Amino acid sequence: MASSTSEAMDVDDTAKDRDRVSALVRRYFAQLTRGCGRPGCPNRHCRSSADASELDPTRAALLSLELAQCGDHALCDELPPFLSLPLLQQLCASASSGAPESMHALEASLAEVFSSAEALSRSFVSSSAAREAEAAQLAVDPSELSGVDAGAVGEAYSLLFSSPPDSAGFTAADRLGNVVMRGGHALLRGRGAYKLLTEGNCPLQREGGSLRWLLVLMANPLLLEPQHHKPVLLPLCSLIASLEEGAAAQVARWWSHWPEPALARIVVVLQQFLSVRLCHTQRIDDAVVAATKVLGLLYDANEAALAAGWRRGGRGSGGGGSGGGGGGGGAHE
């Protein structure tokens, strides 16, 4: 009797496993052939991704079965959120229609992504083809690039923060800027993000691609405004200044591949921060030291770009000071 019950349970478990795999296969097949509907999806196993392969139904079915049977699933709706320039353009176009639900959808997407290091690291990522083309132009291995599309990041911020004012002088850009900065503040608040990047066994230290969110946040033009210095720019500089030496050098290498105007804008932000801070405190405190170290990384990046011939000589975008390097105090006020 016990044996019969056990056999019945085994049959039931087998049927459940079969149903689970079958459901996964159907979901993967839809994802591979139709996509998740979000342009610029970073999941290469999604038809909406720029890296997706053209698959006929037979090949899509075989790959769906293979993906369903592997342990690490790659279903878009189970992965962290992301933003791409085409997706953001789609959301902004919808929001400009004036429908409240469309603006709420845009705000929700911004809040979700800008408050998450993992989501930001999956955002504005170059396609494999674009990365290989850039690597060939710079004569480096594609793995040396950050994978962040600096041009897309700049266009995204311009798209969000350049709407004309309404009759009361208020703009959608003000509203969206507040959402983005609140997200950044939530991400950097307290010591959670600090521990995330500075603990030796932290996966974000081991997995270099996960440092990409630092580049996206540092490129935010709203950081030029003093009201965003203490809640966002100060802890962000402190985090970057506190990176271990290898991670800090990696950030500098990534910046060396970025367009000079993009780096120059970050230098202006940091110089503005230092001017305001020194005027206010009249002393060199941890915040000044942290910002100076980040300027040092930008200087290293510019020097590396000049040495490699990626930029012409001149003062460039490196700012002042000597090399950055990791370690060093965090300015958490």
Automatic annotation (TrEMBL):
Residues 315-333 have a biased composition (Gly residues). Pfam families: AZUL. Residues 23-76 form the Ubiquitin-protein ligase E3A N-terminal zinc-binding domain. Signal peptide: none annotated. Residues 314-333 are annotated as: Disordered. This is Ubiquitin-protein ligase E3A N-terminal zinc-binding domain-containing protein.
